[in-house]
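User: Show me an example of a complex going from sequences to structure tokens.

Assistant: Sure. Here are the input components:
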Amino acid sequence: MSTQLRLDLTHAVTDTDLQLLQPNILEAHELLHSGRGAGSEFTGWLDLPSSFDREEFIRIQNAAARIRCAADVLIVIGIGGSYLGTRATLELLSHSFHNQLPRDRRPGTAVYFAGHQLSPTYLNDLIDIIGDKDVVINVISKSGTTTEPAIAFRHLRQWMEQKYGQAEARRRIYATTDRARGALKQLADDEGYETFVVPDDIGGRYSVLTAVGLLPIAAAGIDINALMAGAADAMNAYREPSLASNACYRYAAARQHLYRQGKSIEVLAAYEPGTQYLVEWWKQLYGESEGKDNKGLFPASLQLTTDLHSMGQYIQDGLRQLFETVLTFDRPRRDLQIPRVESDGDGLNFLAGQSMHYVNERAMAGTLLAHVDGGVPNIHIALPEPDAYNLGHLFYFFEKACAISGYMLGVNPFDQPGVESYKKNMFALLGKPGYEAAKAELEKRLQR
Amino acid sequence: MSTQLRLDLTHAVTDTDLQLLQPNILEAHELLHSGRGAGSEFTGWLDLPSSFDREEFIRIQNAAARIRCAADVLIVIGIGGSYLGTRATLELLSHSFHNQLPRDRRPGTAVYFAGHQLSPTYLNDLIDIIGDKDVVINVISKSGTTTEPAIAFRHLRQWMEQKYGQAEARRRIYATTDRARGALKQLADDEGYETFVVPDDIGGRYSVLTAVGLLPIAAAGIDINALMAGAADAMNAYREPSLASNACYRYAAARQHLYRQGKSIEVLAAYEPGTQYLVEWWKQLYGESEGKDNKGLFPASLQLTTDLHSMGQYIQDGLRQLFETVLTFDRPRRDLQIPRVESDGDGLNFLAGQSMHYVNERAMAGTLLAHVDGGVPNIHIALPEPDAYNLGHLFYFFEKACAISGYMLGVNPFDQPGVESYKKNMFALLGKPGYEAAKAELEKRLQR
């Protein structure tokens, strides 16, 4: 297989302007590959597609096979990077109604998520529909103390022990966590859960191709060998720091150019509903990597053509602070032909016999030009089809472009210092021991 | 029942700055209520909660009862305003897994959407899971010629006729369309579908409380009387143009103040996953109403606490071009208690016995103050609970605030001229008769 990602910058930046950024690209490339850039202790994802732990990979495949065998339902407990990559993959590559298909018509276990928010309504509702099913849990947390997944896991673990008894519940819980320390690692050792590793040198938002993503993705019946092969080909394709040949760096440079031109929002727009969580994954990757020091493009998303009938007016004619990055696939997972109708009241018989994908593709092309005419610069990323190989490629493409973008912007693309602010306030307001002074002060502010 | 929406502008605007906008509010109010403002032919939503057609309302309830009786599955075919209001309501008020509950454990029909994009993958997948179910269709389109729903309806109508035969298929299709003309109205008359009305004086994004939304919402088992009662109370609560007493106008004024201060993005953040499509509905309402003449706030959304672990870093520390509007409910639909765990490895025993909703609420308060400290102005809208009455109230609150906001901004809040641009291009590229000249030119641009 060969990489076939195509990047079109015709409507984003001239070749001349792009070439002006070659020195910045070289510098960012050097920071990333030399390990001298900020946050370099978190660049384990860079050669992951070749250096990943083969022994663990086989253990993941075996565990996934056991899960598919033992369970109707896998509950994935995780948030942020321990949630979005898996969900992005399942939604793009699985049947649109995977969880609702009868078991003999889907390639893997039904997958539900928990611990990705603090809604008691959701957690109660989830238990309603899995109550009579055979369930396995994959709890994913580096520390084991992140509030959302920890609360969900407390509740679901108790529920599993009531349902199966302690011994069987233990066999049905898999923990993906730190290699050596932390609350979840300790608990897993005490209880005898099978464990997988969240590597020390890969941050959450870059972790989809580690056990964090691979175990639930494999359990759902998706080919994780193909996913890794796509990422490996991308790793090889985007090694050289020349803007002329490296599409990944061209993407990073183009968006940096547009940011410097005063654009403050990048809208990722995709034409398949299965991309809904892929764009959410992308929003975390770029928002968390670049959004610091009062800088960075605000990442937003569009589901098209759905949102042409909602946000389309704004994109066409609103404030000109944005540009659009369009993601398309040349071929859909399934197609169908538009039927002829005798009466032709809707006037669509000129499309009869055409494939619906063709109409979607023409809608994309027409929209792209309309938005360009409306003053919205456009970056177009095209992939052959939505399969595991191409998605692995795309994950790596976006990850490396994000790291390069961050260095070009002058930030550490691998930390997230701002995430601590709300946590401190939350713990104080919840009365966590040690936060007493902050508590009084915050409560006073809330009572104003 | 009385209206209990609470609006807190403490962290958005001072009373003094707000009062400076009272003359603008008076002017906008006058334009809206006198019918002398731009687009006044589309202000039928303004007194809809009192003036709506009672005869049709009863017919909607009767049809919904028949649908609940005759069908396991209702397919709603529509896009934009013919889609988002219904989906927003179902996702907020129904069980999180409504469609997957056994029939005797849900109050109404399972509801699936179609015609809200051009994905053949989705449409094929949808048919996989409804193939053996009893199906009713509600096709919603003012004209009947909008491409997305028209293609889906062509396909699903053929499928229904094959499944049920022509006569029974006709009894299982309900059309919500223009009162008198248009392709769908014509077809419905020819075929004998029961029809409901998309009013002439209410645009798509303001239409959730017409038959457009009410029929599928009632079929799903939601109390549409309560929905209308909430809207009626809102209509009465937000009549007077005084900023001192009118929370709806205060919201409009606050966001206009922040826009004039240079903010260009409004992020609507909600703390219940059931609000996912309510914020999409809000994005259409505001984006399509204000995003024109190269003006307007870009509407974006956050699902919290989920997105604190993705977009949270950006909100806290990124480019300071945004403000946040937080939507919360005082009580969840369902709650649960956090269990005590002997070992307390996750350190959460200080929360044992507390309700999960309490933790969610404290996370919200802590986040709000953290974001304010990070330079993000904050508007807080709180409602007692997610039920039909409060949602009806909120729909009206947002609709009226949007109209007022549009007039304050100096745009026509009821048109969407920019939506035509992509349609023209798309039709030309698809070879629609009459678009030949444009076709050649666009294709040349695409081949560059």
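The lines above are the inputs; the final block is the predicted structure for all two components together. The first strand of chain B starts at residue 6 and ends at 8.
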